[in-house]
Structure formats: C-alpha cells, structure tokens
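User: tokens in, sequence out, please.
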C-alpha cells in the first residue's frame, strides 16, 4: 500500500499529541521532510526529525507514531496496491520461496502483514527490529546465511533495497521496482548500473 500517506498521517498526529501533552511548540514538518526519512527504522525517523534539544523525546514520538499507524490501518484507510496479493499467490503456486526483509519494527511488520493476511505467503519475514543497530544489508546477509540461500532475487523500490542485495558473491540478483519510491532519475541511475527493472508491478 502507499505508505507515504500513512507516514504523513501518523507523524503529524503524533506530533500534535506529543506537543499538546508537553505544552511545547508544535513540531511541524513538510511532506518532503517526512518522506525523506522513509526507509529508516521508525526510531531513527523520529531522531532525524526532532531538533537537537528535543532528542530525548524521540522514543515517545516513535511510540505515538506507532499508535497512529495502527489506528490508520485498523480504520481501513490503507489498501493494498492492485495485484499485490494475486502476485504473491501466483508465486506461491509456482513454488517460489518468499522472504521479506524490511527496515520496519517488529510491531509494524506484524500489524501490516497480519491486517492484510499476508503472513501466509512468506516462508519468513525479517525486519530490522530483530537486528538492532544493524543495517539492512547486514540483515539480508545474515538471513541468507541462516536460510542457506545462495541465489534468488532481491526486489525493492528503494536504493537501500538494491544495495542490500549486493556484497555477497553468491547472493541474490537485484531487481528494482519501477513503481513505489524509485521513480524518475533515481530509478534511471539504478538501471544504468546494471540492475534489472520490473515495470507494472507494485510492491
């Protein structure tokens, strides 16, 4: 689903609630500022957005963001992109082993996959919340080692997704989605470095 709308909603509501409780000036961020943090773990997003003198509030802001993310999704305001579940179902029928590797927290992973009933399509779902202090590339590398996987495809719509599929001689080929966050010049640069692009598929 389009997580950009979720990001804008949850951070703006969390900021308003936090500032009202503490009686401090409202933290206001533009859409560009908020969306620039997407791809970072949730706690890191809060740190990146808060001014230095309010860094001690990052944990509380993150907690409130998680609350409003849950409310947004449980109210039915998020919808899967058309074709996502059909694609996953088809891949399972063709006996592909599917694994998820995300920079989200364990709570967010469980919320999204549980709400949309997507757990059943994945053999295992990894998230950065299970690898504290690590990068996405570290998480993918360790997951590949644990699962004894030497091939496959790493599919993503952000630079970090594509980078996470590199650095392992027998690791997965990298595929960038042309829908989602990789658009325009960024996507063109990725393809020029030898990555493969998938058009018409949303993630």
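Assistant: Sequence out:
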């Amino acid at each position: 689903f389009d997580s950009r709308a979720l990001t804008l909603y949850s951070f703006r509501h969390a900021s308003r609630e936090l500032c009202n409780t503490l009686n401090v000036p409202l933290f206001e961020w533009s859409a560009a500022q908020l969306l620039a943090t997407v791809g970072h773990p949730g706690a890191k997003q809060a740190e990146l957005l808060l001014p230095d003198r309010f860094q001690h509030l990052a944990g509380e802001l993150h907690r409130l963001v998680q609350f409003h993310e849950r409310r947004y999704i449980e109210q039915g305001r998020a919808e899967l992109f058309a074709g996502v579940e059909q694609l996953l179902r088809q891949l399972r029928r063709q006996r592909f082993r599917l694994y998820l590797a995300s920079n989200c927290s364990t709570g967010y992973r469980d919320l999204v996959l549980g709400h949309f009933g997507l757990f059943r399509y994945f053999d295992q779902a990894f998230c950065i919340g299970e690898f504290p202090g690590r990068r996405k590339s570290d998480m993918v590398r360790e997951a590949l080692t644990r699962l004894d996987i030497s091939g496959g495809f790493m599919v993503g719509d952000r630079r970090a997704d594509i980078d996470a599929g590199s650095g392992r001689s027998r690791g997965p080929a990298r595929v960038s989605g042309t829908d989602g966050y990789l658009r325009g010049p960024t996507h063109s640069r990725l393809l020029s470095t030898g990555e493969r692009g998938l058009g018409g598929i949303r993630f």
